[in-house]
Amino acid sequence: MPSPYYKRILLKLSGEALVGAQEYGISPSVMQKVAQEVKEIKDLGVEVAIVIGGGNIYRGVAASAQGMDRATADYMGMLATVINGLALQDALEKTGVFTRVMSAIEMPQVAEPYIRRRAVRHLEKGRVVIFAGGTGNPFFTTDTAAALRAVEIKAQVILKGTKVEGVYDADPVVHKEAKMFKELSYIEVLKRGLKIMDATAISLCMDNKLPVIVFNLTQKGNIKGVILGKKIGTIIRG
């Protein structure tokens, strides 16, 4: 069996990545695919934590732009991440992977409250831990939540799954001539204003020397490939 390059990782999934061919909501086929790929890396002995967004159901920033109070809109977005977390838990457990959902907003009937030491213990016991509810605070994105949780649990890397191959100098969907970066520094991401993660998340990673690998989640085998140390996507570090 190949040896994984990373022992403990945090996988950041955008809510939009779960939509599939639909306009919104959760695609069961996409969820099953993600669950199967997570199982494959779990079987390599990797400890896996996941932070999931909620943009497939509700985007607080978009609602705020239309006049809703920003804090209220963000709290609604956090609840959407809990819905996604429960859906992913169900898909993972159908593949035989023991899973815990931990929410930054307490709702004990459906998820454990987030406690750092308990989260680390779950990982050590071989469970996948899904962090839902963002940071529990408005005005912070799920990218910032991913960076925060990764630092807290001492993950070795953040894997950010997207719909494109990596980080580009322009939107590759709109600009066909857009150039993909193989490697970027944190400072370059901030100076160029690249929107792959917000500035707070990148700064937190920079302060803690936590690398981020941005890759195409829709390409089968990419998660496992990254775990095995293959040069896939864009790495942000140093």
How is this structure best summarized?
The chain has 8 helices and 11 strands. With 238 residues, it is α/β, with parallel strands linked by helices.
Distance between the termini: 31 Å
Q: Figure out the total of helices.
A: 8
Here the CATH topology equals Carbamate kinase
CATH class: Alpha Beta
Work out the count of structural domains: 1
Taken from the alpha-carbon principal axes, the silhouette is: globular
Rg, rounded, reads: 17 Å
What is the β-strand count?
Answer: 11
- Share in helix: 25-40%
Report on this model:
- The protein is an alpha/beta fold and 238 residues long.
- The chain has a single domain (8-236), classed as Acetylglutamate kinase-like (Carbamate kinase, 3-Layer(aba) Sandwich).
- Helix content is 37%, strand content 18%.
- It is built from eight helices and eleven strands.
- The strands form two sheets. A nine-stranded mixed beta sheet has the order 4-3-5-2-1-6-10-11-9, sandwiched between helices. A two-stranded antiparallel ribbon has the order 7-8.
- Helix 5 (142-152) runs parallel beside helix 7 (199-207) and helix 6 runs antiparallel to helix 7.
- The longest helix is centred in the middle third of the chain and has 25 residues, at 70-94.
- The model has no long low-confidence stretch (mean pLDDT 93).
Q: Which keywords apply here?
A:
single chain, alpha/beta, Carbamate kinase, nine-stranded mixed sheet, two-stranded antiparallel sheet
